[in-house]
Design brief:
The chain is α+β, with helices and mostly antiparallel strands and 331 residues long. It has one domain: archaeoglobus fulgidus dsm 4304 fold (2-Layer Sandwich). Strand 3 and strand 4 form a beta hairpin.
Length: 331
Amino acid sequence: MEENLAETIAQKINALLKKEKETSEFLRQFGLAKKVQTRNVNTRFACIDGGVAKYSYYLLDIIFLKSAGLVYDIKEGKVENIKQYPEVIRSDIIAVTTGLDDIELGVYTNLYRQLKEVETAIDIANSEAINFLAMDGSIIPHYSYVPFSSPLVSGLFQKLIERYRELFSICKNKNIVLFGLVKASRGQRFCQVIMEKHGIHLESKRDLSLLNFMLQKGERTLIFDYSNNPTQHPILKHFPEYPIKSFYIKNAEHDFPIRVDFLALQDEEKEAGEISNLILHFTIDNSNNIPIFMLEIDKRVRLANQEAETLNSEILGKLDVMLLNIFKRWI
């Protein structure tokens, strides 16, 4: 029975993949993909990433956070200098004692991580002369982070929105092209654009399943609006004067396309072309769509579980004997 079930599922997947391939080949005639014009890279840019880990105790939760950036000087396509910001990357430790449930704690943790990353981006944008600023993930918070009933979570969300507005303002005033790389997008926006503009019905509504066949290495999609109704979007409505645009690029032959969200400043086609050229230049593995500059900063900020384990051991070692058994049962 299990063998028959596996065969049925496999046949279904094969049929879907065949249909996606046929649809993708049909859609190419509408000019939805374009070849990226590559050229030598001469620029100065920064990339930002953060790491997070949390440890739950009987009476409180502890969150570990790291955020840092790298500033690259590129001349004739070669890295001349890399500057780390800050010079020494330390963990921030936050104790949460307000009794958040698991979902609220997860949202609070992600909001705090994004806040640290945006604050790092603001510091670098203010202090460094850069042309581009790359973020890990989108350049806006996820819509699922819309405030919960908890004042702690909603207050943090409002602070994050304020910091994003500050970052957007700095980038606009200093003409810094701000963009974010979404490595495994589950978005459907590109499929919606196709259906809206061309009246084509698509059985699959997931962008990546379609674009993985449609795009060839070195190609990107046309630029599209992040949302078709930004004034009603739960996040974009906070940034009415800042247009957020998106496109997908196939930068690794044996991996899925990566989504790029960016703050459109003056000439969005020129900006998308420059971002694409930068991404292609720093993609060195045909099986991995993450550019090397993001891999490097990720390696530097990744939080090892050992940090949480070390602190946990220290805490347990200092507890009264009477309380120790309670904590051991909880963790």
